[in-house]
Amino acid sequence: ECQEIYHPWCIEAGRRKLSGHPFHYDHMLQMLEISKATCIACKLIITNIGYTCSDCKVNFHIKCIQEASVSSKIKSHQHNFYNFWIDDSQFTRACGVCTRPCEASFYGCVGCSFYAHVEC
After folding, report:
1. Which of 31, 59, 115, 117 could bond 93 through an S-S bridge, CB–CB 3.0 to 4.6 Å?
2. Residues 85, 36 share a domain
3. Looking at beta carbons, which pairs linking 73-79 to residues 24 or more positions away fall under 8 Å?
4. Position 7 pLDDT exceeds 90
5. How far apart are CA 31 and CA 52, in angstroms?
6. What are phi and psi of 61, to 5 degrees?
7. Radius of gyration of the chain from its Cα atoms, rounded to whole angstroms
8. In 3D, which of 76, 82, 73 has the Cα closest to residue 20?
9. pTM for this structure?
10. Euclidean distance between CA atoms 73 and 89, whole angstroms
11. pLDDT (tens digit per residue) in 66-105
12. Is residue 3 part of a domain?
């Protein structure tokens, strides 16, 4: 299980909604107590507090959401690329290079909706 430790101030400050997050930009994510749910990003159990989408019924660890906020810049592209590691057919994207489904770890540009396998 994931070892989750939270500072009380961070929890109170974090009880907010996130919109437009690269992992789940279609709907709002809300930080809630969602123990015993599975994080869709890392597949580990959320033991206490995490982010949830009430529309899609998906959940994320706080750490997984924070780590996904880190992006990379590629010289030949105008937007930043994010490394996604979602392994769920509901959120699979087609690779913009080879057209096969992107599964597990892949890169994506949220601005253009362009996604590609790590190897592509």
Report:
1. 115
2. no
3. 77/109, 77/112, 77/114, 78/111, 79/109, 79/110, 79/111, 79/112
4. no
5. 6
6. -65, 150
7. 15
8. 82
9. 0.58
10. 27
11. 776 666 777 778 877 877 776 666 667 889 999 998 877 7
12. no
Q: Which residues of 78-93 are buried (b: 16+ CB within 10 A; e: fewer)?
A: eeebbebbbeeeebbb
- Exposure string for 31-65, b = 16+ CB within 10 A, e = fewer: beebeebbbbbbeeebeebbbbbeeeebbbbbbbb
Q: Are residues 98 and 80 in the same domain?
A: yes
Residue the block writes with tokens 């930043």 = 80
| Sign for the pseudo-dihedral over CA of 87, 83, 102, 25 | positive
Co-location of 56 and 17 in the same domain:
yes
Q: What is the pLDDT of residue 103?
A: 77
Among residues 22, 26, 92, 90, the alpha carbon closest in space to that of 53 is found at 26
For residue 24, give every residue at least 6 positions away whose Cβ sits within 8 Å of its Cβ, in sequence order, or none. Answer: 53, 56, 58, 60
Percent of the chain with pLDDT over 90: 5
Distance of alpha carbon 49 from alpha carbon 83, whole angstroms: 23
Residue 103, domain extent: 71-117
Neighbours of 67 (CB within 10 A): 15
